[in-house]
Structures are given as C-alpha cells and as structure tokens.
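Hi, here's the filled form for the chain we discussed.

Project: internal
Contact: R.S.
Residues: 453
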Amino acid sequence: MNFDGKKIVVVGTGISGIGAVRLLSHTKARIVLYDGNASLGEKAVRAKLPQGADAEIIIGDMPEHTVKSADLLVISPGVPVDSPIVMQFKAEGVPVWGEIELAYSFEKGTVFAITGTNGKTTTTALVGEIMKRHNPKTFVVGNIGIPYTAKVPETTGDSFTVAEISSFQLETIHDFKPFGAAILNITPDHLDRHYTMENYISVKESITRNQHGEGFCVLNYDDPVLRDFGKNIDNAVYFSSKAKPDYGVYLDGTMIKYTADQTDSDIIDVSELLIFGRHNYENVMAATAMTIAAGVPADTIRKALREFKGVEHRIEFVRELDGVVYYNDSKGTNPDSSIKAVEAMSRPTLIIAGGYDKHSEFDDFIDSFNGKVKLMVLIGETAPLIEKTAKKHGFCNIIRTDTLENAVKICHDNAVDGDAVLLSPACASWDMFANFEQRGELFKEYVNAFRHN
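And the returned structure, exactly as it came back:
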C-alpha cells in the first residue's frame, strides 16, 4: 500500500500502537491515534509519541466521520478483531491490519516466523542467535518483546528478520509471507478470544497462507494436528522427539540428528546443552530444522546451541537458598506450558499457579504433578477452578492466598532442603499484573529478598 495521503487510524497507545505511529511517521500518511480509555489524557498520550511524529489523537468515543474517512485501521494484538470498534470500521469496508502486516509492508529482507502454543520465545531466541552467527544483519522481533515496526526500517536486501508471532498477530495478516515458517505445537489456549479449537488451529496454520509451496514450514511431527497439516502443504520440514521423520530433525537417545535423503547427521548431544527438559530439546530441534533449511552450516548451529542459556521467565533459575532452588516460569501462561515446566523439575516441587481466566481446563496440569508436586499455592482469578479440579483428581495440599508476595513466602516457609519452588501459573497474568514479565520480575524480587536461615 502506498501510504501517502492515506488516513490511517491506529488503535492502542501501548508499545504496538506507538510503534505503528513511529513507522508511519516516516511516510506522508495522515495518522490518527485512538484509545478507548476515556480516563487517559491527550497530553500523556502525546508524550509517548516519537519526536516529530504528527498524529491526531482521539480518546474515548470514536467519531463517525473518522470511521467513514479512514483508509486503513491498524490494531494492537490486544484488540479483538470482533470488538465493537473494529466492527465499526469493517462495516465501512476499511481494511484491518495488525503490527505484523504493517511492518511487513516495509520489509526489505528475508523473514523467518515462528508460532505455536508453547516454546515460541525460546525457539525464536535460538533461531535468532544461530542466524546472527550466520549473518550479523539479523533482527529478532515480534511477540518476543521487540516491536517489528521498530526494526523493519533497518532491514536491507541481505538482512534476516526472525519473528515470534502470536495467534492474535496472525489474525490480521494479509500479505505476510515468511520464507521460513514454524508451527511448534497446538494445544488449547486463548479460547476466550478464538472461541473454538478449530478457529485457533486455523489461525496458527495461516502463517503459511501466502507461501504457496515456496520456502519451508517446520512442523512438530509428534503433534497429530500438525502432522496432518503437513500432508496438505508442499514444503514441510519436521522435528520429532518420538519418531524419525523422512526429512528433518529428530532425537535418537540423547543425540539430536538431522535426516535428509536417507542420510543422517549428528548435530548435538543434549548433554552439551545449557537448557534442560524435553520441551527444550524440542525447541532446539525446531530451531535446528529451521536454520538448516535456511542454509546455515551445521557447525555454526552447533556452536550457537552449546552457548544458548535460555530466555528470561521460562524455567529461569533464580537462586538456591538453604538447599531450595527457585525457578521463574512466568511464561507458563497456559496449562500445557506449565506441564512442561513440572516435567522438567527433578526435585520435590512447591508450585505457584493461577491467574487470568482464558477458559482453559486444568485436568492435565494436575495429572502432571504425578507425586512430584508436594504443595500448590494458588492466586488470581482461576484459583477456585484450579483448586476444584485438583481436589477432583485427589490433590488436596493446596493453599490459596491473595498476592504473589504471600504465595512466595508460603512456599519459602514450607520448602525444605532438596525442594524446588516453581512459579508456573498455567494462566495469563492480566488479572493481577500488566504482563507475564512484571509477574516474573516481582517473583524474582521477592525470592531474592530472602536471607539465609
């Protein structure tokens, strides 16, 4: 789209919205920045804008003439595509884009995009580290915390962009076409937004919509939904911890191997990795499959894998105190993610869980305790539901409390030498915190405030 003279309405004054305004300010578009929160002051919103950005600011109600005169609506990922404000614009035939689509329209290089219910951030960070060794002109963006709009002006014909893409961001793609895509897994999540698993699956699979057999798509062979999906596309590359695919990366004992044309190659033994747990081995395999398919030499991949220390808030070691180890897994924002964290624990574990209600079910989460979890401390909106589910499954050692700080103290007071304390909420953070990062940072702050007995 040629933005010159076009009236573009940006919804949301957070990182994504301000990033969109910053990018559009380099064009001759007429920018309108909107936020429905009537308590915001225009002065405070304008202070967020980059220097030199000229945008009309609307707060509260959206004027009808703005809707009718708009050429494009750009929404933040947190704005549902069926929200009243979006439906107003759709009724007038105004195209609706998200940050990813907007940024992609400025992209000059080659894009690699990673989605999936769990493992996105770790895999994206891994792919980014590998690609940077192969090509220093690599940008890591998206749901990982760096707006795509902030980096896309720096892209060039020979640069790589590695993007973590959420289902919310995929809802608003149109021409977005990554050369390399990956769908890591699909388990129930965000059903409060997508309503049905069928919708959620369809959104995740749309990451390949515009590839038309070009490039490649890395898929989890162990996920029945994705294995079936691979049969319907021409460019599938697989990874598996349970089987040997015809083409891709698999786990053979402790060795991660690459197979193609009936020839196998050793990549790395998991004992050489600094991250642990089968879920992380799957992330490593996905990153390996993606970068091999992108043409990165195996030696380059191997060196990056050996040095990768993991990502913040994902089974992040915080400290050991009086024989008790503390792990921050605030990125455990759905049951399946937290199941993987529990499975990775090698000690008797006290777990802190609960948070924003995304209409998830917690039966499998409780079943994963399997004698390993000795105490569960619950906080947040979902605490009653998780407690009810736990008791149904025979797990009754539960304490409910009203703050994360109290939950951490309860775990500290009940843990003994040889135990682990794990924050892995199995829920989003939005009922009590701005985001999972804030939740994780507070957990670390509370843990680090303890002194030796």
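Let me know if anything looks off before we file it.
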